[in-house]
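Recall from the previous lesson that a structure prediction takes nothing but the amino acid sequence as input. Here we apply that procedure to GNAT family N-acetyltransferase from Oceanobacillus locisalsi. The sequence below is the only information supplied.
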Amino acid sequence: MLYKFTMMTQEQAEDIAFNWHYDGDYSFYDMKADKEDLDEFLDSEQRGDSTFAVTKENELVAFISINEVADRMFEIGLGMRPNLTGKGSGLEFVKEALNFVELKHKPKKIILSVATFNQRAIKVYRKVGFTDAETFMQNTNGSTLEFLKMVYEC
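The prediction returns the following tokens.
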């Protein structure tokens, strides 16, 4: 296993929130882009035991949030450090993230939602076995965007 998953510390949350900045359309994923998301991410009580820092060789490279939304169905949210995106390491990271969720929770299904403009991520999710479920519009970060809900059968 190349990645290590540990409970996110406040210092790691602040690093992600204030120092991770994505380029172009991907700036949508900056934590500062949505005050409500930022406040939730920075509040250790709201993060609870559902948000994990992902390190590789002791360096913070990603994060994952895991929330049970129904009996043995978990919704995940993933983020990778901006300077690592688009460089081919997403597939390996997502595979290990799914393995982590499966070992920790024994889910029947794992779901996620991704902005439809993020074709890089969608390709990775499909390669690891996610299937498209539905698209929906969501008001977020001051605009309305189309999202794709994807499902992974365990």
